């Protein structure tokens, strides 16, 4: 299991202007360099902006390519792959602190108008853009005859992929040719243009001039290491648009094929039995959101969800279950992507959940991760008869999301239920499952992690139920239920006149500053005075800032990163590049592929079941 979190960045200009002209690309470069000063890191296999860190996590610029020269931007950090909810919560807390520290340690040149860099761990900004957190779990994509049908469908997808690659080859060659022509013309123009104008043009494109490059410290990397992306962005806008539109059109058959697989063959049991848990959990694990009309919602992420399963972002869709990572694998940056498609034939695949808020509370994160892990174990064990199923998941999500009084009911297979009642039914079914399995195994200590997940899940339900009975009973939930704490802060805000409600802009500031990762963030200020409500110790956080759990494949990756980070090969490039599953090591002009070891050779499903 693992989590990917997109952090929003905001630059306070040094001169007091409304907006800084520092681009998303420059902000990411400053954060990346600050983090790489904290720990060893290496580039991803495909080059570009991604960095894999020695603690098993990964860093990437998530802002769309066409928007990277604009202000702001999204920076994604992913946790290492782990097997226990306790490890995942500790790893998530660790990368939150890494981002917080990097925002204060980022270094800026004298000509960059930066007074302070703020990092927000939220799900929706003031303009309504959605981003945030995604959860990943390894589980059975199908079983029995369903698995056979799934693999047949993947064969058809593979054939479609090869056809799309062949059809798109001329377009790719045209892009390469246009980039070469563009570079040649720029090179010729730079030779005849005055030196001062050349430096001014470089600065306008966000590139340092030669003097600045000489003054650049050894530890600092160039702001853009992906030459192919830089060449593409340099092309005229109409060429970029035409190229992207052509490639999207040529790959449309592949997208359609994947949508058929995702809708009819993959993760059918999970979508049938897990969706009710995900939709109803906004009541206890949402982070709250204030919209432009002043209406309060339990979850900002849920506002844009419009379907159960889909790519996620290809046409602006926002599903509960996302399989856009499959499309990324099939449409990789090299011919290697055709060979990597065979990974989709495996029985166990990554289930990615897009309906997930960026929680700050330890209790909410524990309950969120632990509850899903338990229900997935129940689905694999075929113990699902007590799990309620929603008649209309998307409609139910919209009802629950605006129901912060927790009174609205939706139709389910167990009758009409509220969000809290659905959560309670899932909890009781999971509690019975854990009790029976621990008794059957005769080794109750192996189920300690599951018992902890149940304990935190039950506590979350209790705190929200307490608020439902009496809306003044919020004290125990502060710092533990994110949306409840934010709602309480909003209610404390008052206007200029006595008894007058606070203006929307004041309340929206609270909505956003709650998520700021700094000592000025409202959640951070509250929890600093109530540290007894934290579930992860400083010792565990510090450990996960430096190392991945010893039984994770990320531990092997982290060891190799420490061994080879910073080394230069004979050819002049980095000695090591990596992705999540393997590394390429260039030593003495011989390139070796190293696959990261797993912790066991046995049944991984059974191992996860005993530890989650």
Q: What key phrases describe this protein's structure?
A:
612 residues; alpha+beta; 13-stranded mixed beta sheet; two-stranded antiparallel sheet; 13% strand; globular; disordered C terminus
The main pleated sheet reads as: 13 strands, mixed
Total beta strands? 17
Rg, rounded, reads: 25 Å
For the termini, the CA-CA separation is: 10 Å
Q: Report the β-strand fraction as a percent range.
A: 5-15%
Helix/sheet category = alpha+beta
Low-confidence stretches: 198-225, 599-612
Count, helices: 23
Q: Considering DSSP H and I runs of 4 or more, what fraction of the residues is helical?
A: 40-55%
- Backbone shape: globular
Mean pLDDT across every amino acid position = 84
Task: Tell me what the structure shows.
- The structure is a single chain.
- With 612 residues, the protein is α+β, with helices and mostly antiparallel strands.
- Helix content is 48%, strand content 13%.
- The protein has helices spanning 24-38, 85-105, 144-192, 195-204, 210-215, 227-234, 237-250, 252-264, 268-273, 275-280, 282-285, 324-330, 336-340, 362-380, 393-401, 419-441, 448-469, 482-492, 504-513, 522-528, 538-546, 553-564, 604-611; strands spanning 2-12, 41-44, 51-53, 58-61, 74-78, 116-120, 133-140, 289-290, 296-297, 307-310, 319-322, 348-353, 410-412, 415-417, 576-578, 582-587, 590-595.
- The radius of gyration is 25 Å and the shape is globular.
- Mean pLDDT is 84; it is low at 198-225 and 599-612.
């Amino acid at each position: 299991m693992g989590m990917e979190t997109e952090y929003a960045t905001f630059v306070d200009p040094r001169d007091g202007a409304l907006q800084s002209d520092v681009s998303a690309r420059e902000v990411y470069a400053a954060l990346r360099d600050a983090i790489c000063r904290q720990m060893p890191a290496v580039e991803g296999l495909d080059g570009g902006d991604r960095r894999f860190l020695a603690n098993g996590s990964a860093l990437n610029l998530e802002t769309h390519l066409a928007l990277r020269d604009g202000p702001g931007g999204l920076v994604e950090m992913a946790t290492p792959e782990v097997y226990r909810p306790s490890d995942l919560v500790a790893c998530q807390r660790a990368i939150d602190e890494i981002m917080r520290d990097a925002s204060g340690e980022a270094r800026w040149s004298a000509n960059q108008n930066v007074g302070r860099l703020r990092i927000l761990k939220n799900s929706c900004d003031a303009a309504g853009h959605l981003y945030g957190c995604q959860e990943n779990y390894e589980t059975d994509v199908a079983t029995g005859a369903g698995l056979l049908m799934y693999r047949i469908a993947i064969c058809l997808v593979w054939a479609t992929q090869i056809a799309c690659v062949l059809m798109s080859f001329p377009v790719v060659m045209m892009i390469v040719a246009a980039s070469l022509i563009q570079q040649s013309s720029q090179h010729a123009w730079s030779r005849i243009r005055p030196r001062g104008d050349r430096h001014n043009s470089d600065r306008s494109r966000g590139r340092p001039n030669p003097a600045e490059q000489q003054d650049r410290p050894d530890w600092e990397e160039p702001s853009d290491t992906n030459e192919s992306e830089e060449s593409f962005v340099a092309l005229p806008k109409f060429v970029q648009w035409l190229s992207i539109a052509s490639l999207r059109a040529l790959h449309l058959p592949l997208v359609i094929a994947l949508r058929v697989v995702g809708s009819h063959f993959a993760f059918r049991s999970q979508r049938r039995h897990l969706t009710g848990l995900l939709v109803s959990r906004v009541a206890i694990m949402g982070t709250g959101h204030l919209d432009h009309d002043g209406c309060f919602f339990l979850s900002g992420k849920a506002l844009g969800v419009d379907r159960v399963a889909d790519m996620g972002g290809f046409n602006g869709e926002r599903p509960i279950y996302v399989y856009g990572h499959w499309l990324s694998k099939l449409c990789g940056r090299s011919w290697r992507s055709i060979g990597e498609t065979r990974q989709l034939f495996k029985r166990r695949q990554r289930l990615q959940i897009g309906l997930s808020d960026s929680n700050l509370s330890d209790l909410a994160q524990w309950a969120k991760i632990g509850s899903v892990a338990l229900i997935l174990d129940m689905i694999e064990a075929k113990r699902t008869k007590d799990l309620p199923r929603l008649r209309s998941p998307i409609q139910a999500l919209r009802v629950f999301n605006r129901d912060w009084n927790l009174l609205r009911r939706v139709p389910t297979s167990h009758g009409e239920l509220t969000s809290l009642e659905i959560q309670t039914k899932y909890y009781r079914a999971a509690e019975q499952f854990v009790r029976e399995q621990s008794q059957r195994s005769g080794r109750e200590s192996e189920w300690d992690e599951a018992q902890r997940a149940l304990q935190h899940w039950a506590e979350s339900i209790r705190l929200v139920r307490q608020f439902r009975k009496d809306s003044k009973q919020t004290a125990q939930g502060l710092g533990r239920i994110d949306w409840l704490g934010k709602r309480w802060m909003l209610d404390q805000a008052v206007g200029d006149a006595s008894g007058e409600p606070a203006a929307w802009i004041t309340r929206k500031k609270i909505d956003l500053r709650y998520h700021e990762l700094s000592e000025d963030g409202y959640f951070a200020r509250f929890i600093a005075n109530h540290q007894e409500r934290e579930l992860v110790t400083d010792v565990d956080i510090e450990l996960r800032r430096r190392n991945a759990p010893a039984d994770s494949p990320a531990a092997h990756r982290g060891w190799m990163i420490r061994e080879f980070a910073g080394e230069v090969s004979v050819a002049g490039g980095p000695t090591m590049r990596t992705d999540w599953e393997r590394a390429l090591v260039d030593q003495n002009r011989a390139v070796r592929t190293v696959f990261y070891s797993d912790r066991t050779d046995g049944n991984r499903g059974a191992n996860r079941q005993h530890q989650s």
